[in-house]
Amino acid sequence: FEPHITSDLLDILFTALKHTNRFVREMGYKVMSSIVKCPGLSQETINKYWMLVTQQLAEGLADNWSQVRMSASIATREFLNHIPKDNRMQYLPVLLPPMCLNRYYVAEGVRLYSQETWRQVTEGRGIQLVEEYIQNVVSFYIVESQASNHAVREAACACIAELGTKVSPDRLRTHIGSLVGALLDCFKDDSWPVRDAACLACGNFISCFPEESRTFMDELFPLFLKNLEDSIPSVRQGGAVAIASIVKAYGTDMEVKVVDVIKERLPLVKEQPANVDDNAPRHPDVDSRPAIFGVVRSLRDSDYEAHSNQQMYSCGSLAPKMKRGGSGGCMDHQFHKPSQPWEKSEGCVYLLAELSQLKQCHDNVLSLLPVLADTTRHKHYTVVWVIFRGAKFRVFITLAFRKKFKNLIFAIWNFSSTTVLVNYVCGHVISRFQKLVVI
Q1: Which residues is 292 bridged to in the sheet?
Q2: Would you say 272 and 387 are in contact if contact means Cβ atoms under 8 Å apart?
Q3: What percent of the chain shows pLDDT beyond 90?
Q4: Other C-beta atoms within 10 Å of 88: how many?
Q5: C-alpha–C-alpha distance, residues 121 and 425, integer Å
Q6: How many other CB atoms are found less than 10 A from the CB of residue 297?
Q7: 20 to 30 Å CA-CA from 326: which of 43, 49, 108, 358?
Q8: pLDDT tens across 51-92, in order?
Q9: pLDDT (tens digit, 9 = 90+) per residue, 76-87?
């Protein structure tokens, strides 16, 4: 087939790879996969065309559609596996960054396939290759953190977090400012998984580079606290994990600030209304009339201009609705539901659980147990059982080793008899006590 691999053929194929229809692009990469694995190709053909092919593969690996990414991932693996190992290095600066990012892509098929490709291509040298091409990798991650697709931004945050924990600090130190700047942008995202990933990534970076990150703390700390009271439970938990990381990194001064926040927010549950106010419309942009066949119409569904000449996304993607942040300020998120008092208190319970894992914080955590015990007395609101879900009982188990659990027993006693699930969790905690300490 080599005589047919000409500039004319590749021009047609490359045009198909840029087609607006994702099915055409997907099929184009399948054709590309067949071409790159043709046996017996001469070195002349490889030298003439393969760098151009590499550029097209890299664009496919960053496509907005998961199906196109998958097709490009298959073609990329075929491309690299049919090139002698000694000749791969010239193509890796272009292909390595998107291959690395796709290991965290939200679509499971793309993610798992990319992880296996990474193992096959790097042969256990992944970290060394990333360090070798760190400039290319960092630049690509920053660009992807600004992508229009929320799933891509989330993957970029996860990859930036990975850099902080795995790559040699000396190779990464000169890029800290640009990477943290990208994470700050993602911290203000409409999509809560992106905010959560950015929060955890910032916590990782501060743990690894406390001095280099200190200049960003005036902007980062309010964002950590904002995540701690987010309406999404996993975002609150991620905020607690990140804040515990910065306490560990910066010591007493940061611990004092965090304890003051807990003292302020933990008692707020007493201000929680028994029921959420249903008078105000929760979704002002949605038609209030009954849904037709289960479909609720937006007030702008019939607006032709709103649906013309727009970027296309994967089926079911929230990307058109989830815009990235960066308009300046932590309050510019269009999709933030106002925090309820109990959510602010629960975020502090998560934070207490994380701080209890740090030996340096044990005294302060123990001093806050009376406040925690008083918090559990309030059972007037609907979601009372949520505030003490099982994962947060780590704080109790850890403090049991200190044998200073009088206020803790009061907390469990106050909180029991709320629901069957909570009774089970409280009973489990007390049984753990009996095994850990002699009462």
Answers
A1: 295
A2: no
A3: 31
A4: 15
A5: 47
A6: 13
A7: 108
A8: 888 999 999 999 988 999 999 999 999 999 888 888 888 899
A9: 999 998 888 888
